[in-house]
Amino acid sequence: MKYVVVSAVVTDEIHFPDGNVKIAPGGAGFYALCGLRLWSDQVVAVTGIGEDYEKLHGEWYRRNHISMEGFRIKDARSPYTIVEYFPDGERIETPALGLEHFRSLEATGEEVVPYLDSAEGMYIFRNLDPDFWNGFLKNKKDSSCKIMWEIAADAAQKENLENVRKIAGQLHAFSINMTEAKSLFGTSDREQIIEELRSWGLELIFLRQGAKGAVMITADEVVEVLSQPDVQVVDATGGGNSSTGAVLCGLVEGRSPEICGRMGSISAAMCISQYGVPEEITEEMRKEAWEKAICKNMKGLV
Fold this sequence. Notes:
4-stranded mixed sheet; globular
């Protein structure tokens, strides 16, 4: 498979203020998968699931022509999150089966490494879990697969800076939002953060700024990319994951930092325009996405 997503997929039980309840697929890995699917047919997620996952969500994967071959059944139940929304738009999330259960289903570094033989791009959403990174990095060898790490918020702390930089330096691309970057570098100085990230010398760093857009950083240039205009934000969940997946696709396809950033903003807009993700990512949506990102005479999808 050309693109591999390494992160959790979960079941969200969404409670709305009016009392309605919706069961939907969720999790960082799921949103990254959707962000990539807008641009490519060749995507798969690698993680652990429960015996219940296919019954609950298999139809969505079949409808969107996404393989489930990367899933490994590791428990009777998949991670399950209670998401409660309030009238003011705020929400709380509660892992119904506990954090230990969630972590027990995550993919190990050793489970991921075999996919590097055939993949051209890999998205990893993770904190600094040494068990994962030690197993992954020592076996990564000389793979040509481009690896994008989206750092988990709990790892973006100033005391972790050197460790974060050390791991990122062994990869190709890095994704972080501005709030996390301020915490990681211990400063609110935007220009200082950009210069610090630029000094890492990675092929691409995706500094996300929510509605303000993103900063695409390479060793040679810094490019500002605006978010998509006229987007009604219904639920911001998954915006960062979906946009990072899309940026990885742009990087693998050799697109410029600006186009990579546009691809990210387009995937994010798709995911934040409703609760959860669209029921179906159609060919019309994909063609329109390319027209927005590149030009109106773009033919074909990757």
